Amino acid sequence: MIRLSNLILQRGPQRLLDGAELTLHAGHKAGLIGANGAGKSSLFALLRGELTPDGGDCQLPPDWRIAHMRQEVDSLDRLAVDYVLDGDQHLRQIQQQLAQAEAAHDGSAIARLHTELDNADGYTADARARKLLAGLGFASEQMDRPVGDFSGGWRMRLNLAQALMCPSDLLLLDEPTNHLDLDAILWLEDWLKSYAGTLLLISHDRDFLDAVVDHVAHVEQRKLTLYRGGYSAFERTRAERMAQQQQAYEKQQAQRAHMEDFIRRFKAKATKARQAQSRIKALERLEELAPAHVDSPFDFRFREADKVSSPLLDLDEGRLGYGDKAVLGPVKLQLSPGARIGLLGPNGAGKSTLIKTLAGELAPLGGRLTQGENLVIGYFAQHQLDALDPKASPLLHLQRIAANEREQTLRDFLGGFDFRGARCDEAVDNFSGGEKARLALALIAWEKPNLLLLDEPTNHLDLEMRLALTLALQDFEGAVLVVSHDRHLLKSTTDEFLLVAEGQVVPFEGDLDDYARWLVDFRSRQAQAQVAAGSTEGADRTDKRAQRQAAAALRQQLAPHKREADKLEKALGKLHEKLATLETRLGDSALYEAARKDELRQLLAEQAELKVREGELEEAWLMALERLEVLQAQLEQAT
């Protein structure tokens, strides 16, 4: 287990933790949450051995293997798949020793190392690495490109894949969803649910936390408080605790009154669409949980627009893309005041292309885009953070667009975004990504937009700021079109979805659960199309010599996959025998007597562990059989 006792942790003069206590048992999956700068990343550094406690104790099992997601990339020439495989250092050591033994023609060492390679699942390593990359959104051809070819966000995905590739007892993930789209987040959720080790996760994505973790460790006032359950359970428990504090009463009542009024107004005009009903439920949950956030430093609204046009924007028969390459089209879309639209679709389908076109950053390749006479767009995209003047302060940024406004009014407005006192006058180049995102949102909110175009607005924002943005969007009277991997934001602020896929933009009749099922079906169809394309290419070959070479190569690939499938089937058979024996023992009524409760608890824990392992083995076995079928089909085509 992980045990922190009376822990003191400092960074320079700042004390991050003071007398903190925490116990995490093996197999727990815990979310680590708290305000930016509270010490979450420093705690990770402590667990990795990069920092030492300034007081108290930090104890971990000495034999635990620790994997973490690195923040830097230093192997730009490595192929992506090889970079991911480097995450399994033990495997790489075996492969290196095997190469040396083969060069020395040491038969005994070669035999021993092949056994070690088999025990380390080395024959399946390349396939497992490619599966990780596919899950994180990499196309097949990208897997064999150098790391240096990828942008910063995609390099972070490679670092995540490398961490997942590493066999570990403790997995430390710091904001793993920051550079992922919704497709990749859903895949990562499933992967982490089946992870057998102990997980400690820093994230500001509440739905992701709810789906993955079974405990939440909250860093607050230099202490650590452990809550059982996911983020929603943490909110409920903390709401109950905060509601009992008398000094919070007035703010709670004001927040509750605001939420009740908003829900009444919204229900009166809500449609019967599934997503609209999902939004009502999300609002009602927020009303109940408002007390958990009474100490939030954020409180802002988007200023009300002076005038409104109807429609705000009208795109007719639009062909959208870059240069002479169309990504979407024809697209017909009209945005009216009050519209609440979320964009869904696989990575690379064209969601950002659509938003950039509507924002005027991209000209349509064809069709007609008409703007309303009184249209005022508030456009948020990640590149706008880089457009901030690094030498200017938040106050100066706001003064440049509000030259005639009183300074105190501007300072009060910035205070709602937690820029207070001296922080209002500091240069932006010292700001974190989250602070820059807050400032960009503040500048948009001041301009009185009647249409918000938001492309991943929650990147870099912590949980409290995400909630404040959600409340501000709910109160916003204008139209909203948003792309986000934050499902809670989508559930709480949108009434309908548009699906961007396969060159089209069409209404999506469903909610996010329906979209998750659509994604599974979409990926399945893509995989089938790739297999069919590969088969067609094989059938078209006319060079007999090339056919024989291809068949030989396929047979060579087939052998380790056959060994892997047989090995997994054998392991599954042994596991079924163990489960049958265990279930026979659990069928003994005497086991349930009070005197044997420890024995019962141990057997139930063992059963749960075996069930998890059974699911993993069955999935791996089915995948191995599927790969065998594909390779055998390709072999038949080649011969």
Structure description:
This protein has four domains: 2-231, 3-Layer(aba) Sandwich (Rossmann fold); 245-293; 313-509, 3-Layer(aba) Sandwich (Rossmann fold), CATH 3.40.50.300; 541-638. The chain contains 21 helices and 18 strands. The protein has helices spanning 40-47, 80-85, 89-103, 107-119, 125-135, 152-165, 182-193, 206-212, 231-243, 249-269, 274-289, 351-359, 383-386, 394-401, 407-415, 433-446, 463-475, 487-493, 512-539, 544-586, 597-638, and strands at residues 2-11, 14-24, 29-34, 55-59, 66-68, 170-174, 198-202, 215-220, 223-228, 313-322, 325-335, 340-344, 366-371, 377-380, 451-455, 479-483, 496-501, 504-508. Helix 7 (182-193) links the parallel strand 6 and strand 7 (198-202). Mean pLDDT is 83; it is low at 538-543.
Outline of the structure:
The protein is of the alpha/beta class and 639 residues long. It has helices spanning 40-47, 80-85, 89-103, 107-119, 125-135, 152-165, 182-193, 206-212, 231-243, 249-269, 274-289, 351-359, 383-386, 394-401, 407-415, 433-446, 463-475, 487-493, 512-539, 544-586, 597-638; strands at residues 2-11, 14-24, 29-34, 55-59, 66-68, 170-174, 198-202, 215-220, 223-228, 313-322, 325-335, 340-344, 366-371, 377-380, 451-455, 479-483, 496-501, 504-508.
Number of strands: 18
Structural class: alpha/beta
Q: Tell me, rounded to a whole number, the average pLDDT.
A: 83
Count the DSSP helices: 21
- Spatial order of the strands forming the largest sheet: 5-6-7-3-8-9
Number of domains: 4
